[in-house]
Every structure is written in C-alpha cells, then in structure tokens.
Queue: 4 jobs
Job 1
Amino acid sequence: MLKSNLLNTLRNRGFINDCTDLVGLDNLLKRTKITCYIGYDATASSLHVGHLMNIMMLKWFQKDGHRVITLLGGGTTKIGDPSFRKTERPLINDETINTNLVSLKSIFSKYINFSSDFPGALMLNNDKWLSKLNYLEFLRDTGKHFSINRMLTFESVKSRLQKNDPLSFLEFNYMILQGYDFYKLNEDHECILQMGGSDQWGNIVNGIDLTRRMNGSKLFGLTSPLLTNSSGQKMGKSSNGAIWLNEENLSPYDFWQFWRNCDDDDIEKFLFLFTEFSTEKIQCLTTKKGHHLNEAKIILANEVTKLCHGERKASDAFKTSKAIFNENIGSSKLPTIEISKKDCLENITIIQVLTMSGMVRSGKEARRLINDRAVKLEGKLIHDISENYKTISFVDPRKLSIGKKKHFNVVII
C-alpha cells in the first residue's frame, strides 16, 4: 500500500508503469513537496493525444502542490530521439524548431499554471544550456560518466542493433544530452524526478546515474505505460491521422468527435486518464451499459475538449454534433475543406469531390461508400456514382457526410 495520496491516485488511475525507486519516492512525496519534469521535443507544431497522458501527470503533481517543469527540447530536437524508431529522424532547421516551440507553449498553458513563484510551473528550453556546451569540455567532464556497455543494453538502442537498423553517432548522443538535462535541472532548480513514457526509461536512468556521479544527488524516474486502446492499437494517431492537441492541426469539433466515438471498452480508462472526475463519478457513469454509455462518451468528449480547447469551443462542438445528428444543415461550425478551383472543370463529380477533398483515399473507396449508401451531400443521400454538380455550386460551403460520424464542409475556391 502506497503512503502518499498522489502516487495512490496515479496508480489507481492507470498512470504508473515503472519507477526507479517506488518506495523511496512514495516516502518522499508523503512528507514534502518536490520539483519534477517531463521533456518534449519540438519535432512537430503540436503534441498529440499520445502525449496527453503525461501532461495530465504533470497536472496531478501540480494539483498536489509540487512544482512541475515542462522542458522544451529546443536543443535535443536538433539531434533527434532514436527511441524505438527504425530510421533516423529527419533533421529540422532552427526556424522550424522555434516555430514549433511557440505552438507547444500554447498547449501546456491550457493544463498547467506557470509562475516563477513556487509551486508555479516553469517552462524551460534546453537549448539555453546545450547550445553553449564546449564539446571537448563536455566529453571530458560529462561524457566520461557514461558507459557504452550499459547504453547498448537499453531497449531503445538494442532493438535497432538487433534488427540491423542504422543508428548514427548523432542519435547515440541523444541520451547523453537528455541525461545532462536532468543533471542541469537538478543543479539549477533542485529537480529530483523525471517522468515520461515507458520508451524513455533508458534516457531517464542515464540522467539519474550521471547526476549521482557528478554531484551525489539521489534522483528518481517514473514512467507511464504505452497508451493503447482496447484493441491494443497505440494511441496518438488514428487511421485518419494524428489526434493533435492544437486547433490549427485538428479542429475542436474533430477532437470532440474522437472521444465521442471511442470504443465502449475504453470509456472508463479514458475517464480515469484524461479527466479529473472522482472514482465514484467515473464508476457511476460507466456501470450502466447500452445507451447509457453513449451519455458517458458525450460527457468524456465534453470534459476532455474543455480542458484542451476551453469550455466555449467544447460547447460549440457538442451543439454542432447535435445539429448534425438531427440532420440540420446549419453546419457553419464544421471543419471546412478547400478544393482549388484551378484543379476543377466546369462540372465536378461526387467521386471527384470525395477524392479531391481527401475524405477518401481513392475513387474505388468513394464508389464503395456510395454503393453502401453512406454518402450524403447537404443531408441528401447520394445514390448514383456518376452524379455531378456545377463547380460554381460549391462557392459557398456545402456539407458532405460519410456515415454518421464524418462530416465536413467542402468549398471550391
């Protein structure tokens, strides 16, 4: 039985996979407040739902009175994390990294309160210290503490070597730099806990060992399990693309729909991980089956979207969904797909509308959906695959639907 309320909460809600010293961390959290961090590289302009689990962990730590640090990897992004990848990440230029960093900052501020006053959270960028390192001094003073033999045993490296997938010297340095981050945060901010996904275990352990060798501090590592749905599929991406956390990459409506359309077997798990509802409330929502689970899905979608995009946009997404379900054509809040007018003739077929909008992958798929009576334009069922329209009729957005769950406005401009 864990002694600290926080670790009990995290374990019961499904956040904990492994810990370097669970008993030691539990005793520490029982008697004092600490500083902890999670690092996020700027490889994209947004994080996706696969990252949301760790963001919620930071939220729970802050709620319990601890200082949390979101460490943005402006420096480590220049190297690229090799963890469980078959090939090296494409290198990103400084301009793209800086653009991505600005976008990532806006995401964290929705979940975490940032302030220089303890226990307000800090948002730091490791490029501030990594870019200033002198290579020879770094090798002499820091590199000497890393064991190549041990680094080769970490699963993220071992899996690449066993499969004869290339691992560049550049990538191999990544875990050294991340380990140095932990040491630096401990020196400057008394940070003693690094958290991350289970794929970060080797990097976290490296940082703990490095800091112990350099200043004797006792540090801890805590990892969360790989986020999967009930069918065992890794979350973060769907068949239609990543479930992004920023509005520019994915509309609040589509984000809302992702949660509304989750599998029945995932509802309880998602409520525990992605909301702050009590155990009693979650059990109450999920005990009854059948249509009651649809109500629970709506509550899940509303709550997760409210945390990510704000109450107003969550409410708008819910209202839009209701309007579509009731076959109302007032769909001004639907995401809009633009087709370039220069790519179209005077007339356009429904097959072309579906394929050029990207709603289907091929004309073959479009024909199948129409034959299955799954395609509607402005609420009217499409029966004929040869049906065509004046291109000019799409100057104003028209609602195109596939099944009951996929709805967009299409406009030709």
Note: Residues 291-309 form the longest helix (19 residues).
Job 2
Amino acid sequence: MLDDAQVRAAMFVHLERVSALHPEGVTSAEINQFSVAGQPMKLVVQPGIWKPAALEAALTIRTTYTPPSQLPPYEDAIAPGGLVKYAYRGTDPNHSDNRALRTAMQDERPLAYFIGVAKGVYQAQFPVYVVAEQREELAFLIAVDEGQRLVDPDLVASLTPDRRSYLERLVRARLHQPVFRARVLQAYEKQCAMCRLQHTDLLDAAHIVRDSDEGGLPVVPNGLSLCKIHHAAYDRNIIGVRPDLIVQVRRDVLTEIDGPMLKHGIQAMHGVRLTVPSHRAARPDADRLDQRYDEFLAAG
C-alpha cells in the first residue's frame, strides 16, 4: 500500500503546477495526468468523493459544474464561520464514500477540492480539511483555510462578529473569488470583453452589480471578463457599459490629454461594443447592466 502522506504531498505539488499554468481552470484530463511512485492515479472521478484503493481515507472531493446563471452548489451551503457543507454520498452514513471522508476527518488528512467552472474544467482548492460531520443534515463541514481549522465548529455561534466576519472573508478569498473568476473567464473564452486582450494573467472577473450590493451574486451573468486596466476603470466609473452592451467613457475623461494609455487604452473604448459569450445564458444581464449604468451616469 502506498504511503498516504507521500500520495497527498505529491498530489499537491502536481496541482500547484497545473493550477499555476491554468489559473482560470484546469481540465480533468490534465488533473488526471498524475502518478506517484511510478503508479498512475486519477484524481477527478465520478462521483464526488474519491478514495483510491491504495488509501484508507478519501483523497479528493468534487462539485459539478453548474449553468452560468446558477450559483455553484457550495454557495447555498456555507455554514457559520465560512465552512462549506459537503453533502453525503446518498443518505446512508455508512456508505463506503462517506466512511472514507469520515476517516479523512478523524485522521486530519488534507484533501483536494475540485469545483467545476466549465464542462470538464475545474478550479482546484487545496489543501482542505474535513473538520466536522452533521449527520442530521447528511453532510460534512469543510475548512478551506487553515484559519478555519483553529475554530471548533460548535463554538462558531459564540464568536464575536468581527471574528466570524474574518473567517467568512477567508472563504471568500480562497473559494468565492477564484471560482467566480474562473467561471467568468471560461465563459468569455479567456479574453477581455472590451479590448479582447488574451493574456489570462492580466484578466479579472469584474462584478456588474458590486458584490457588496443587493443582487451582486457571483454568477456569470453578473460578471464581465476585463483586463486589469479596464476592470479598474469600470470599478471607478471612468468607463460604463450601457444595457445594449456599448461602452461609454466618462465625458470629462474623454476630453483629457495624456499619454498613449489614456488615448488608446481608455478613450478609444468609447462606442465599442462588448464581446460577449456565445452561450446566451452566460451573457451579461441587461437589468444588472442598467442598474450599474445608472451609477456610472451619476458619477459623471
């Protein structure tokens, strides 16, 4: 039998490498190009909980891709303190998959968590830990950050609001933001919707309705794939987007005289039509664009 710690350490090195190459999401085929001690080992398989025969505890967990207009499954299952509720396989606590995940919890084994961001494409979160089980809800609780492991799930309700807020910010930084970015960039074929720049390390997922505002959900129709300069300009209402997808530059900025970045990078975007996803359900929501465009007009 393979050494458990050796397998997990090798898996994390492999995932670190492929995730660095593809921060917008890694295909299952690339993830599964993994071997340890000369033995090939798949990491993404059906169903969600995976325990290779050579190990006693689960190695990976997975959630499937959801349509662009729907939240990823974990978004509806965030427990207090930002812990992720991960559903049992079926309803039998003693199903072999559930036992394998329970063993990982009891032995404090780190796992990899694969979240679908497109068909056959995943955002890899690692290491994550199973920190509790809620049998009455047929679920386990997953910590996606080391800081969450330090808090007893049964004591979260007694934490100060600042402490709870801190823990929830951890899950946003580790889980929500990277997954939202990956889903949006996949939908926009990894290019800026305004200038069509295709260097993914210079692309962001911009919220149309800000995530701090009502309706600012992390779903693809509330996102735009923008390069960093256009993301910053959009966030600061230097650039706006009409509901008919036409880009507008704030009037005072249009009359400024500056260097080539302002002229070609900002002012030249005035009147450009956004390049949007071919999949209709992934296109920017007109009502959200209208709401955000009102903010842009007020800023001008």
Note: DSSP finds nine helices and twelve strands in the chain.
Job 3
Amino acid sequence: MKFILIILSWLFCNHLHCQSSEFIEFDTFHVDVIRIPAKECWTGYKPHYRDYDIVKHLTWNKIDIPETDTKHNFPGLDYSTRIGFFIKSKMEVKKSGIYELCLTSDDGSRLWIDGSEMLNNDDNHKMRKVCDSIFMAKKENQDFELWYYQGFVDKYGLKFTTKELPDSLFQNVIDTLSYSIYFDENSSNPDSLQIENCKEFMMKIKCKNIDSIQLSGFADSNGSVKYNYNLGMSRAESVKELINKFFACQSVDIKTRSFGENHILDDIVTSKNRRVELVVFTTKLKNIASSN
C-alpha cells in the first residue's frame, strides 16, 4: 500500500513549519538518534531498533539533508556512519486532494502516517528517490514518522517532499491509489464524516478512469476470529454499496475481501484497525508529473 508527498521548501505557517504544498503543514520534527551495531548496518529497519538507547535528540524545521560525503559529520552529530533516526512530527492536511509524496535517501528510509506505511526506500543504496500518490482527506493532528539510517560508506543524505497533484493529471501519474475508511467499534456502517470523505475521494478520481477497485476489510482484535472476519467483510461490502450508490461504478470490477483481525496497525489506538482499505487500479498512460 503506497502513499506519497513532495516537500519543496520550508515556510513558517503560523506556529507550523509548512513544507512545499500550501495545503500540508508539519509541526517541528523531533529526531531520536540511535547507534546501529556494525553487523546490522546492512539490514535496513528492524522493529527492535526502537528498543535501542537514544544517544541524541535533535529538532529540525525541515527534512532536507543534501547528499554529503561521510568524511563530514552528520549535522548536529560528531559522527557520520552507523546511525539510525526516528523522526516524528504532527501533520495537517488542510485540503482534501491527491498528493504526491517523495522520499530520497542514502541509505535507507521509510515513512508512516497514522501508523500506515506510505513509502519504503529502505536497505543499503546510493541516493535514491521513491515517489507515490494518495488521496488524503482534510485532517488535523496526524502522526508522521520517518525512519532513516546511514550505514558505513560513503555518503549520506535525506529529503522528503510533498505537492498537490492537479485533478487533470490523475490519469497521467497514478497506477494505483489508496485510501482508508474507518469505522466505529462493532459497526459496519461508516459515519457521516467518513462517507463525506469517501465521496470526495471518488469525485476526484471519477469512475470512468478506473479499471478495478479492491476493498479490504479489517477489524480490531476484540471478539472471536470468525466474528472479526465477518465484520471485516461486512465493512468491505458496505463501502462497495456506498460507492455504487453515489457513483456510476456498476461497470467497474469491485472486489471485496476480509482480513479480519490480521494486520493490526496499532495495539493502543484500536480505531486505526477498524477500517476498509480501498485501492483503485488505473491504466497508467504517461508519467509527466516528474517534469512539472
């Protein structure tokens, strides 16, 4: 499941630091630094890295570390290799729309928003850029987390950028587009806000541009495995009904499936687990976004 943003410049927007797109704002980036054992510097992100001692805490106003030779220390540190970074902030999407996200790094990096992975540019490699697109509904106070690490040699660098894509470019830049719809506990009917966000999403992409839609239902871990499987399926079917109710998508192949309580995103904020992931598949014509 991919999601993407492009951050071109940093401005101050009231108390927030605004990266590129005027419709996406970030608070200060809080950076926890860890040292990675030499034997693990070739493996990319591992969950147990979160248990390592934090050796330094940094604050950034932007994520824009240019490609630099490791003979120069990493900014704010006394060393330049065997470093891991957990970068956290709060993100606000001020306008519903389709956004492109890009993550460029040497070595690896990964991006999560509200616990869902958006970009994976991990493992050892030279400066490399990974981008993808996602519909993002207007929303405040989203959890932003980025992992980045630098192994041994010979350069380091990290950039994160976001931009809004014009609706007219949709068919030109997107192979797949993902969006999640959330549910109350034990409910298979989305509330009015979720319905409105779904309608905005569908208005952006228009059914005529769609080859197929995959709806995957999920549940939290409360209840039996069978109950959660059935609940996930009911949620997927509910979203299918919603799509066909408001849009002329009857000719589009809409598939539903359930994962039940599998793929738990958050053990504490369980509302993130009660969801339907909607993936739209389109025919990619010509990628002109990178030249704009």
Note: The radius of gyration is 20 Å.
Job 4
Amino acid sequence: MNATRVGIDLAKNVFSVHGVDAHDKVVLKKTVTRGKLLECFANLPPCVIGMEACSGAHHWARQLRGLGHDARIIAPRFVIPYRKSGKNDGNDAEAICEAVGRPAMRFVPVKSVEQQAVLCLHRIRSGVVAERTAQINQIRGLLAEFGLILPKGRYPAQHHLPDLLEDAGNGLPGLARRLLTDLYQRILQLNQHILAYDREIEALARHSSSAQRLMRLPGIGAVSATALVASIADPGQFGSGRQLAAWLGLVPRQYSTGGKTRLGRITKQGDKYLRMLLIHGTRAVLATLGDKQDRLSCWLRELIARRGYKRAAVALAAKNARVIWALLARGEDYRPSPAAVV
C-alpha cells in the first residue's frame, strides 16, 4: 500500500481513514478503533497525514510524527469546502485528505506536551474565574429579591457582603442568610484557587526567557506572556507581525470588491482568550497614561481624542501583537519608545 496522503476523521473510539497514492487514487479506506490506530499507521511508509483541529488532535499528531509521518492539523472551517456530499465520517476523512494536499493550505502548529500543560493551567484558571463571577452574580440576584442591593464591581461586592449577611436587622430570612453565607464561603475558596494559579503562572514566567521578553511590553503581564508563548508554537509560521495580529483577530474585517476597499470592525478570529488578555492589558496602559511624554503615550492620547477609548485599546493591542511576533521570531529584546521631541 503506497499511500502518500491520508485523512483521519478523529473521534472518541472509532476513526475513519481515507488515503490516496501519488496519482490521487484511493488506496486506503477503512474504519479503525482507537487502540488500532497507531498500529495501522506503523505499517505504512512515511506519508502526509491530515486531521481536523479538535480535542486530541495534538496528541495524535505527536504520536504519528513519532512514527515518522508528517502529521498536520487543519482548522475545521478549511475542510468544509472539500466535502463533496452529506456529512458523515467517511466523507469527512475524504475531505481532510483532499484539504491536506492543497499547496496553499494553512495548518495549526502542533503543540508540545509542555505547551499544552501551560494552556491547561490557563483554561482551568479561566473557568474558575468565570465560576466566581457567576457566584457573585447569583448572590447579587438573590439578595435583590429581598430588597438588598450590592454595590457594583467584584471588590466592592465582596467587601460589603459579610456586613450585609451579619446584619440581623435587614429582614433577610434565616434560611436565605445561611444559604448565601455558604455561597460567600465558596467565593472565598475560589479566590484562593485563583491566587494559587496566579502564583503558578508567575513562577512559569520567571523561568521562561521568552515570557520575560514579552513582559517588558506595556500591557503584557505574566498571564498574557505565558499564554502567548504556549499558544504560539512556531512564530516562524507567520510571515510578519501583521499576520500574527490577523491570526488573533485584531485586524479590520474586509469586504472589498470592484477595486473599492471596505474595512469594518475587527475580525475576532483566532483565540478569543489571547485577544481578551491583550485588550485588557492595553486598557490598563490607557488608564495610567497621565501626562507621560514618551512617543507611545503621546500617540495614544492623540488616538483617543481622534477615534475613542476602545478603538485606541484595540489599536495598541494590534501594535503589541506585531511587536510580540518580532520578539518571538527574531529573539530580540523590547526597546521602549523614547520621549517625544517637543
């Protein structure tokens, strides 16, 4: 069997495999169980293997590369145009096999085990933060049913909640008071978990030279730096910093035709978690502008006056993305902008 290109439709237990030879003739078409997948490819000569980006894709790509194959991961939206008929496992595997052979196809870099471990920490921390927000909102809504209103913001709410729960004269029933106290204790536990995750991330950043370089940028902290280093497996896949900004969804959405250029809002493609970290970081920079006279601060103040606060935050995030690419791809150190010439 001389398969030169193979597509795998990944699943939990049963995988569909579709392979063609150098003349695009189908030479492999079968269904393989999870335990037999590596055994199936161990008996094949080295070939190009494509699979959709999904849960487990990076694991299988690493395993298949260990067998000598050229395993590549494709975003699902790039596979859809090559599916010729109805959606099923066999047609998906055939479409993946066709897509992986396109010369202009873009692939997802295969992440190492260490990179996925760091991203695991970020995903868990993000989930705990969301859970804490949900608990605070639940307490806020339940207290409103008794005419008790918490102040806006997480810190003011957590500060006033103990006094409110201990106030015996506010008319809160005993059952509700006990249940809401349990929720408050759960929030305190979540705070401790988040603090532990933050300390773990800071320790990872201290031991990563790439993260240390990124943290010199305005608006980039330990959380953003470690997430970026772990997510950008190969900076060389991007030809320029603008390509990285486009991958993060920080460039304008384009709908141009007939020689007329139309640019809209940002595309919001790519990893929304990384985009959120970058934009939140730039908001912190804008909040501390003051009367700084360096070139970046002067540019930001002018941009805020001309285009508004939120657009300035996104513009700085896109600028940071281009600088991040230069720091990671070229191994350079960040050079802050000098003071503006008056």
Note: Residues 113-206 form one domain.
